[in-house]
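Annotated sample (chain length 347).
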Amino acid sequence: MTVTTVDTLVIGAGQAGLAAAYYLQQRGVAFVVLDERTAVGEVWATRFDALRLFSPAWVSGLPGCSWSGSKLHYPSKDEAAAYLRNYAAHFNFPVHLGRRATILRPADGVGYVVETATGATYQAQHVIVSTGAYTAPKVPAFATDLPPQVQQLHSSLYQQPSQITGPGPVAVVGSGNSALQIAADLAGTGRPVFVAFDEKTGALPNNQLMWVLLKSTGLLQLSRYNALGRRMMHSPEPVVSGDLQRLRHFTNVEFVGRATGATPAGALLARRRATPPLDAVVWATGFRPDYTWIKLPIFDADGVPRHKRGLTEAPGLAFLGLPWLNSRSSALMGGAGPDAEFVVQNL
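Output written by the structure step:
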């Protein structure tokens, strides 16, 4: 078995992994980037058709290479995929595609061994796990109470309304921006849409002035390690007020409040009212961690990595791209650079 040996192995060629690659290259470190996909940016290209970045291009760039075109533009998911693909090509990063990491374990000596689904094996002194925000789809336990005739689809698999069977009522469950965008996408077909949205969720405008204020006041960069940052981190994530208002203007949309259960007849129970029997439910309910492939005791009881600004207690092992890795901007494309620079400097 051939083993590729490098100083640093980056797992994941998304925005966080590519930002790490940039700073590794700047420092002259020998590295390789692994990704399970067949092309850089493919994770964006396969998201739902209506998806756009929540931030304009001028605050969404990776280090060393800005977006082409208007800096005020909110890029589409296909434009985001192209930007990442062009970014990796521009710097000629050593990206090994189609190689899903299946095991990360300590090496017999110093460093780590990473095995992949293709059989290729890597050994590195340092490993940066940049597989993105948590990747295992999460749905509430009561989803199993729905009967088989109700189609259930997690938002990670949703792309367009034609995926949803039948002309009858559909529910979208979730209190984030993706839930609002998917619900509007479905409402555009004219079918009844019930939105199980927690109305305690805050809403903010998403315009150029807001981004100027967030950047100039430093709110985006507030660390989770100070009092105000901790408070922000533990508060519900606000949604885009324009998307919420747009959805409320559809006459075929009804907000039913946060979902609390389901019935064998195919209805959802919610705080304001129950839905009628449904043709389908789209669960825009987020993701949970799944790091079972990492054979190291560096996780808490919920499977979340223990770290300080991405650096773990395991020497030479770090994470990037996690929500609130250091600040609110950590999960945004424009926040990948500062986090990556810190990790590369301190790993």
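Annotation: The first strand starts at residue 3 and ends at 11.
Annotation: The chain has two domains: 3-134+289-346, 137-201+236-283.
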